[in-house]
Amino acid sequence: MMRVTAEAKLATKRRILEAARDCFSKAGFEAATTRDIAAGAEIAAGTLFNYFPAKEAIAIALVAEALGGARVKFESRPRGESLEEDLFALIAAELRALRPHRGYLRPVLETALSPLARAEASPEGEAMRVEHLEAVGRVIADHAPLGPLSAAVWSLYWTLYTGVLAFWACDKSRQQEDTLAVLDHYLKAFVGSLSNPE
Amino acid sequence: MPPNVAELVEALSELESSEGPTPHGPLREALAELAVRPGPEGALRRLWAFGGLQAQVALAYLVYWVRSWSLDADGRERELNEAHLRAAIKMLRTMGYLRGAATKLGQALANLPHVLPDQIVETLERLHFEAPPMHFALLREHVRNELGQEPEDAFATFDQRAFAAASLGQVHRATLKSGEDVAVKIQYPAIGRSVRSDFRNLSAFLLALRLGRGWDPMKAQIEEIRRVIELETDYQQEAEWQRRARAAFREDDEIVVPRVHDERSTRRVLTMEYLDGVHLPAFLTGDPPQELRDHFGSLIVQAGCRLHCAGRLLYADPHPGNYLFRADGRLGWLDFGCVRPYTDREWECNRLADLAIRGDDDDMVRAIRATLGLTEGQEIDPEILATNVAFCRWIWRPYQRLGPFDFGDPGYLREGVEHVVALGRARIPSPWLTMNAFIERWYFGMGAMLYRLRARVDMRSIWLRERQAAGWGPP
Prior knowledge:
The complex is a heterodimer of chains A (198) and B (475).
Chain A: H1 6-27, H2 34-41, H3 45-48, H4 55-75, H5 83-98, H6 105-113, H7 123-143, H8 151-170, H9 177-195
Helix pairs in contact in A: 1-2, 1-4, 4-5, 4-6, 4-7, 5-7, 5-9, 6-7, 6-8, 8-9
Chain B: H1 5-19, H2 27-36, H3 43-68, H4 73-98, H5 100-110, H6 118-129, H7 136-147, H8 151-154, E1 157-165, E2 169-175, E3 181-187, H9 191-208, H10 215-231, H11 235-247, E4 255-256, E5 269-273, H12 280-285, H13 290-309, E6 313-315, E7 323-325, E8 331-333, E9 339-341, H14 344-358, H15 361-371, H16 382-400, E10 405-406, H17 410-426, H18 433-453, E11 456-457, H19 459-469
Helix pairs in contact in B: 1-2, 2-4, 3-4, 3-9, 4-5, 4-6, 5-6, 9-10, 10-18, 13-18, 13-19, 14-15, 16-17, 17-18
């Protein structure tokens, strides 16, 4: 029996992601089927499930990939003048990278990123959360060496962050400018809570 | 340069030390907080802020009233000043917080010296130049959404620090790739939503006052003001008014309107030629000679008249932040967001007013009846007529005077406010009232500028010259 190499697996996974991105943008997330995605990736319908258990898992992978790329770009830029400015720049870079995926961000939020989601239920979501919070931690450390932050602070932050993502996913304002105002407002509240914890 | 918040704090520190702690915290804290507070988008929070503003201002005056019973005259004066100042600071906090329409209201109030106490006027004046700034990350994202490029790529140079702030946006210096210096005005994101929210709150408050027969015209007036301020959030419309204004002036008019750069302008970003010059407070710091005061005062009047006569447009935002006093003697004229074209009906009323200024009492009554929308044979309430006649006589006085009119006379503006208050009390139902709100804003704004300049302006000559140049026929 022929063994599938790790490289071949990676290549197949990439083809699935590309095909899914294409299907989601053309047909929409709801209408796209795993059969369509498999056909687009030139694999058998059943093979797709060796890589992703469901359509939602593909969406999660696409979102995770976009967020990771945005963080790399953010890290390569010079830092701003204030903590809230840099946190804003980080999240704005993520939102920009998420634009092609906006149509299916809601199911991703519900299944993987929700503050109520359990880590063991969505390891991919948990990985995204950890990577984002690590980036936030580095930004905070750059501006304000506060030492380890409490779980309550991180919980507050994650709730605000996912709230912004949810708002953005439904934002009908021109160029989603309302989200920029909301994000600015939330970050001021969060940074304010760091300096005045009570 | 106008004083900034830090200088304001410094100037007020002596008072702060005598003020003692207030329920709202020390002055310094309040101003520091103002600089970082975001503009809330939620209607409920805005409602709270409006309510809080009323309560705080009322409280400051109540404290004064109670304490003044036991003070001598000097002490009373001191107490009054402190009460004014506390009220001003609280107003500034709330208005800076609300941005949007409330900030516009703050600017309008600041245009009325001798209506509000000096301390409040001086403090509110900061709103012409200082509003809580956007940090650069927010600005970069916003510009990128609008222009498709980040500011550093869209321009050869882009100054990250705003050099001017306004109620609806902030202004940065930049250089085009052609090398031309420009000013880039960038609007706060979601400010349109803020304006709508502010006006919903304002309507809710006024509704609670049970205005009776005065409600419908006031509602129409508020709706009209909301519509125009909301139009101010469309920089493409503003660019159009600015282009028309620029085209109305020649080199020898000594009035300069900056050129708009369309390729770098959108509904939220307006790029225009950079003009140097100083604003009114800095100009006055140099104690300019009377001749120069009169010169600039005349240019301010001429600018408004030209737009009115030749452009059929009303410029309703004449506050100190919108004029530049230039070293070469020319007047820089900025910000055409609050410009309103006259309707045919309003224009006809203007024509009748134009006749009445030069005519007799019958002409005046005819003009008043037209502005009130009265048909032939319809009776006019004698009290309403008398109130309107008094207002018209006041507003037309500078036009009727032969030779320069002294706008430095504080009695003139104060008298005008009394007429406006009387008109308000009369609650006159008129479809034309919506326009009156803007005419009043223009006239009081211009009057306040000329008062502060202590300018003597030959209104009549300017007006006759402008109307003739616009082809209105012989005077």
